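Quick check before the chapter quiz. The format below is the same one you will see on the exam, so make sure you can read both the input and the output lines.
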Amino acid sequence: MIKNGFIVGIATFVIGIGMSFLLQPLIPSLALEYQNPALFRPWTDPLMTLFFAYPFIFGLVSAYLWSLVGKGFKGSDSSKAFQFAKTYFFIATIPGMFMSYTSFQVSFLMVLSWTVTGFVEAYVAGYILARMNK
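Here is the expected output.
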């Protein structure tokens, strides 16, 4: 499970960076929002180094969740990935994004970008885990 979680963590790290590079030029207001020091810590803050732990925490949590429910997913690897992403999305992403939108001063577009990124990451995690756990 740790190896699977680490591999998912690497993929999630790459996806997060890729989605950021894709979405920020498409929606310039996101880049400005990320630079707002009233909302986000500056990159010079030492605590921001922990930001890079997220993909690996997500990877381990995904691997654990897969160990609990993965055998129940049926179909092709992409079908299993979608079922996994949907499960994770409803359990974690929707409630988390609802709390983010209602309690932080971030735009709807920011929360929407996090929501889309979260679904893509969960789908890729599910696909990797389906392939590795045949």
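If your answer matched, good. The chain has a mean pLDDT of 93.
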